[in-house]
Amino acid sequence: MKDFNKDNFNDSVRDKFARAEVQPGNNVWEGIEAELLKQDNKRMQKKAAFYRNVAAAVILIALVSIYFNLQDFTFKTNQDGAFTPIELENQQVKTFLSNNNDVLTMPQISDERAGKSILKQNETVIANVNTQGKLSQSNNLSLPIADRQSIEVVTSPLDRDNSEISLSKLDGKTPAEIYLPQMQKEVKKVSYFAVSDLEKSKGKSEIAWNTNVNIGSGSFNPNAEITSSPVSSSVSSLNNPGIAGRTNGETTDAAYRQERETVEDLSSAPMRSNVSFTIGVHAGLVINEKLNIKSGLQFGNYRSSSNSSTVVRDKNSDLFYPYHGASSSTEISDGRVINVTSEYDFYNDFQILSIPLMASYKILDRKLDIALVAGATADFILKNTIRGGSDQIYDVTFDQNDRQSYKNIFASGIAGIEISYPFADRYALSIMPTYKRALTNVTTDSATFNSMPAFMGLNMSLAYLF
Amino acid sequence: MPRTKELIKGCQNGDRKSQYQLYQQFSSGMMAVAMRYSKSTQEAEDILQEGFIKIFQNIKKFRGESSIGYWIKRIIINTALNHQRSKLYLYPMVDVDELKEGMGSLSVDNLAVEDLMDLIQQLPTGCQVIFNLYAVEGYQHKEIAEMLDINIGTSKSQYARARKILMEQLEKQSKWGNERFQ
Q: What residue spans of A141-234 are helical by DSSP H?
């Protein structure tokens, strides 16, 4: 019987394959990359969903807070005799006798309880609480009184003068009709949050300074409505441009027409908003209690994405650059042609420095302040980077000196609602959902599309009042 | 060309360029591995693609306890095994002793690697996988039995069967070669 382990067959086979190499097809990497891109996109979507949920939660909390802040609980004087019963357990009861021996029992509530506990039941604070307390007691006394001619209600010796009430006028009235004289006491409206003396110091009319730093995030869309491709594309292969690549206009073969149309659709696919990030510093003038004007600097990294199936190919270096109907047509020059490729993700990032001038008008001045904000910004495009989601496609970065599709400066309008929470004498935290949109077309004359970027975001800021 | 360590770091950070370079560095060798476990180039490319996706998904778990090449090869082999697993039990077990009887020595010294690859691809799936694992990768039958959840005897019999088929094929080729030159 032969022992397989004793011959050198396995070693020979192992040696044969030790350095064996077989070149896989190009489509393998494309498949891997497509799958990795899909996973990246999923991850991005998860991140975006997370930020959206956080923003939604913040807004929800803010709205709930505003709702409760707007709920005023007003203490009403007792006009209809239906006074809320008072818990009288463990209270001393005193008996009072009228001159005709009717017995009138009156719960004697201690000053503390009469003054505070009773009146706090509606979350309100009322001056001259002793009197109010006794009124409530008296009203609860709707007892069968046979002869009220000379009844004298004996009240606490502390304020006897105020509390003595002659009941002679009550003769002939049913208990439900018995009203005590309406007290002309001031009833103050106090918010839900006002469980203590929360009267704000108001009346500042002099001009004051404030400053804040803010951070924000949101979605940016440079152009949602690109509907046509600026150039007709030609047919090529991303991985093998030398063989199949044709320059723009060199082929009119009908066989490519359908593909070209598809490609033109893809290369002009609408931009999608990605999560963007802003940071800024503002200084402002407090004109009066309600009006505030502020300005400052705001830096934003605004991001968007789309799909494309065209690239710009540099015929000299054979390098690919991303191309999209909404990116930049001016980059096509001598020696550069548009080639059709497999579909890839396309990213259009802007770095924009903004100088805003905003006015805010306070519409609610409570524990949480709410102000309407509106203004305009001057926006400077510092950098526009266009990236293709593939290692084979090189980034294109424009700065202010390059030819590009977008103007270097444009103006935008901004509006928002600022919800502030002053947490100390001079500090306040605020969140502000904002909507910002360019006031005019921001592309240059050489661009073949129009663009009015819009940004919807949520700013959070910390303010300091000087 | 960045060093492998830097490539691994880049891949762990999800850098596409590093991923592409790592792929370029290992794809040819791994394609040869995938070819040995598959019946066609198309199938091998599927295995390679799936394997590299797993590699990039899991490269954060690579701690450098073995070489990156060995780690990548293990993933490619596991991917190939998953591909073939459903086909592994289609062939009946044969008696190993019966197969061993009368087998002569095998020599592949004069055979080109491509021809040997062709012969291995023509083996029945079960034989092919076990031959690769035992003869080429150097696993023991016990390890193979654990990997494929089969008996040790099955592993041995499939290996013996593979050798028998290969010997027959080599003899055929040898006869055919001799006839051509006569």
A: 160-163
Domains of chain B: 4-87 (1.10.1740.10), 96-181 (1.10.10.10)
Q: Is the pLDDT of residue A164 over 70?
A: no
Give the per-residue pLDDT at B120. 92
Mutate to test the interface with B, among A3, A4, A23, A43 (most CBs of B within 10 A): A4
A398 within 8 A of A384, measured Cβ to Cβ: yes
Residue B23 to residue A12, Cβ atoms within 8 A: no
CB atoms within 10 A of CB A412: 22
Report CA torsion sign: A400, A403, A404, A410.
positive
The label of the residue with tokens 């009042």 reads A465
- Using only the alpha carbons of chain B, give its radius of gyration: 19
Closest Cα in chain A, distance from residue B113 (Å): 6
Return residues 37-96 of B near A (CB < 8 Å): 41, 44-45, 48-49, 52-53, 56-57
Task: Give residue-wise pLDDT tens across range A178-218.
Answer: 555 555 555 555 444 444 344 444 444 567 777 888 887 77
pLDDT at B24 over 90: yes
Note the ipTM here. Answer: 0.86
What domains are defined for chain A? Answer: 92-177 (no CATH), 204-465 (2.40.160.20)
DSSP secondary structure letter of residue B109: T
Burial status of residue A56 (CB atoms within 10 A of its CB: 0-12, 13-18, 19 or more): exposed
Helix (H) or strand (E) holding A238: none
Q: Are A205 and A266 in contact (CB under 8 A)?
A: no
